[in-house]
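Hey, I was hoping to borrow your eyes for a little while. A protein chain has come my way and I'm curious about its shape. Take your time with it, there's no hurry, and the full record follows here:
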Amino acid sequence: MRSWFLVLVLFVNFSVAQTIPQKLERAVENLSKSAGGLSANISLYVSDETGNLIYQHNGNLGLTTASTQKIFTAAAALETLGKDYRYSTTASYTGKINNGVLSGDLVLKSNGDPTLGSWRYDGYKPEDFRKKLIAALTEIGIKTIEGDIVIDDSYFDIQTVPGGWPWNDLGNYYGAGVWGVNWRENQFDLTVTKGIISKTNVPLPEVAWMNDVQARGTSDQSLIFTAPYSSVAYINGSLPSKSTTVSGAMPNPPITLAAEVKSWIEAENIELRGTTSSYSLQRIATGKTPVSQHATVFFSYESPALSQIVFWFLRKSVNLYGENLIKTMAAEKKNEPTFDAGISYLKSFWQSKGIAGNMINFADGSGLSPQNYVSAKAEVQALLYSKKQSWFPQFVEGFPTQANGMKMKSGTMKNTKSFAGYHTAKNGNEYVFSIIINNYQGNNSSQALYDVLSFLK
């Protein structure tokens, strides 16, 4: 009797488990036949927590992932750099100080800290950096600077955005580029009232605006166009008549930082007799890479730990962080702080973990480029690898809980949606999954994928 009962229990459990693939197959079939999904490509891969395949549909198919690609960059950075890794920024001076007069330049240099001046971290906000820098200047007794405020942004190469990013993304806050010295996440806020630009929250030195925005409607339908190092910015589309704030990408963050530092020291009655400049602008002007002069460091400033950076990278999908981590890994591991070197390193990292190279065709570190092609199986393999690592708690903490109640990273781009993550079902089964859809023509791509993933709940 007892033996028959055990057989019955096992049979029932086996039958229930077998229905999951069948339900997923039906859900994918319904999605493919829907009006929105009729011409779409779908890649779905689901495994259990140990990597055993539960169900796959075009699991090897490489598709544009959008921001779920961030899981590759975040995990590789945690392993390569370490969860406690911190960026550093220094202030130094050339020349000498005599009776409060600096006969040289004030120089700020960083190894690419993407959080410098960010508003996300307690104790690391713009005003915190300002107070610490001014206190350090006061301590060494500088009252007059005869030279310039110079931002040494030479740690990374001069290319600030990856190839393949769409032009209509570059000028908006989520399309901000990466400099050797970043500031306020390289983002500015623009206030527009009745179609007229009234102010920016930070200085954008020597930037002229072309304004084609129309005052109409009730929502933000505008686009900002800026380019790295450019002196022209453009905004078009429409905004409500009431005062509205939109966010764009700084065309030159180091120069914006220099302008803010200038205002800080002048507010402290420190006289600046020179001007503001950066190594990249000096290179543009002369055609030569500036040579660093001997400088005396008087102030050092560290970023939050990488674990905190990865949290916000995944939780709020900060593209700047992804591209910054790509260059940082390239600098640390290949001594070549370029996008090409970083993307090559990222691909080789994951190939060394067993992912087939033709399933991870990376174009950047954030997923913003539509030239990224990654399969759902590759994303699941990365998630499974991450689950076994000591840094996994810091990694998974950044995954948001979506509207359907599942903890997973999302990716969104025009006609593209993706989700990847971990879920424990009500019956205790643990799933690792990825689903990607390209060329979806429906009104609500999130709900379309929620309907498929609901069978894992």
Summary: The CA atoms of residues 237 and 376 lie 35 Å apart. DSSP finds twelve helices and 23 strands in the chain.
